[in-house]
Amino acid sequence: MFSRLTVLMITFLMFSIFFYSNSLAGDQPDKWQKASQNMVYALKHGPDGLKQSVLQNIIRYSDQLQVDEAVFEVMSIYRSHPDERVRQLALVALYKMNNSWALSFLERAIKFERSPKLRKSICAILYQCNRPVYMEGTLLASTEK
User: Fold this and answer.
1) Where are the alpha helices (DSSP H) in 46-138?
2) What is the pTM of this model?
């Protein structure tokens, strides 16, 4: 019914899929280190779309990645990108990076943030990191006085 060649090819495909899935299933630390290096490089030298993708991956895999080297690039995206949605993405990535320098910067930068949406996000991030900010016009400021 099936030729030998067909059976051999099907067997080869099954073994290759099995070994490929096993190689992806392992949680090798070397894999995360290389991914971190590639993400830092992409944030420094990549186009805008790639940077946005890297920010999404930092948010998703922050517990496995070591991307502290890129904190200045992420902060630069937050401060100077013309699209507020990308600035929001960078803000959440800074939160997920859990970098003390970035959090200190956000404590000072909140006073100068023009976007109410981003200002509220910064307040929420600082509150989550046990660094609450008391600003006029926020619920937190009115309850603490």
Assistant:
1) 48-60, 71-80, 84-97, 100-109, 116-128
2) 0.72
